[in-house]
Amino acid sequence: MSLSGGRIRIGTRGSALARWQAEHVAAALRAVPEAPEPELVLIKTEGDRIQDVPLSQVRGKAFFTKEIEEALLSGVVDVAVHSLKDLATEMPPGLALGAVLEREDPRDAFLSFEGGSLEDLPRGARVGTSSIRRRALLARWRPDLELAELRGNVPTRIQKLDGELFHAIVLAAAGVKRLGLQDRISSYLSFERFLPAVSQGAIGVQIRARDEAIARWVGALDHPPTRFATAAERALLRRLEGGCHVPVGAFAELEGDILRLRAVVCSLNGAEWVEGTRSGVVGNAGAIGIGLAEDLLARGGDRILEGIGKAGSGS
């Protein structure tokens, strides 16, 4: 390992939320005994450059991470900070997940120009979101709404709401809260209807697999309950062969030594879905995720995902 100027270089995107997350990691590293001083290195990703294409039409699963991972592998940076939900469930060779920080609020937040809740929206109201999971679940519960593409960082999306381009928008509550914009949240979408994206609200710190010194310092930031919960969710998503383009919602929580995982697979138009729950001891987090995925596939999830795949390929 060779640190540049005796500092830990943290690779991050340049958006306000990404920088908040990187600064949060930097502050935590400063509290680790003997850890070098961290510094941020801003890296622009494909997701930052392409703003006029719906995420559902972009191929690949590393839209917001690839360039940062390449910088980490080449030694340009020493660690990479990501929203864990953006990180592919299969880690690139040579990289490892060094820490998963304690999770923020994992729920989806409903922001409306007039306040209220999803149920309060009039028929035909225009709702903005870039997530096909949210679009599918919105279509499931409110098929009368007009769902429209919404790209940009969190402040930009809220500005579009203020510009009356939408009656309401749906965002991850964690990002809104981390930027101090929680007063803009009208209400929250309940887990009973809207399971979040896999790992939503969690920050992942990526490192080089054989960098023992960095692993020791970064490992001190790990939050085991969040690590186990997101491991179950990521295992489920990996078995479903999904990424950001598949309408899969999941959330795991710990009750003592027991981990309980809930998940849903929903068709793009919200007309079909399959959901389920599986529990087990925390140490079997990965197996719990795979087991629930197998159950969902057997009960119709395979057919739903096959239909989504055909729609995406145009066949």
Describe what is shown at a glance:
This protein is of the alpha/beta class and 315 residues long. The protein is built from 9 helices and 13 strands.
Describe the 3D structure.
- The structure is a single chain.
- With 315 residues, the protein is an alpha/beta fold.
- The termini are far apart.
- The protein has 9 helices and 13 strands.
- It has helices at residues 16-30, 46-49, 66-74, 132-141, 154-162, 173-178, 212-219, 224-239, 285-313, and strands spanning 7-12, 37-42, 79-83, 95-100, 108-112, 126-128, 146-148, 168-172, 187-189, 203-208, 248-255, 258-266, 273-281.
- The longest helix is centred in the last third of the chain and has 29 residues, at 285-313.
- The strands form 3 sheets. It has a 5-stranded mixed β-sheet with strand order 2-1-3-10-4, sandwiched between helices. A 5-stranded mixed β-sheet has the order 7-6-8-5-9, with helices on both faces.
- It is globular.
- 44% of the residues are buried.
CATH class of the largest domain: Alpha Beta
Compute the number of strand runs. Answer: 13
Strand order across the largest sheet: 2-1-3-10-4
Shape-level CATH architecture of the largest domain:
3-Layer(aba) Sandwich
**Approximately what portion of the residues adopt beta-strand conformation?**
15-25%
Written as H for each helix and E for each strand, in order along the chain, the element string is EHEHHEEEEHEHEHEEHHEEEH
What is the helix content? Answer: 25-40%
- How many distinct helices? 9
Query: The CATH topology of the largest domain is what?
Result: D-Maltodextrin-Binding Protein, domain 2
CATH homologous superfamily label of the largest domain: Periplasmic binding protein-like II
- As a whole number of angstroms, the C-alpha radius of gyration is 19 Å
Shape: globular
Outline the low-pLDDT stretches.
none
Query: How many angstroms separate the termini?
Result: 49 Å
Q: What count of domains describes the coordinates?
A: 3
Largest sheet: 5 strands, mixed
The average pLDDT is 92
Class from helix and strand fractions: alpha/beta
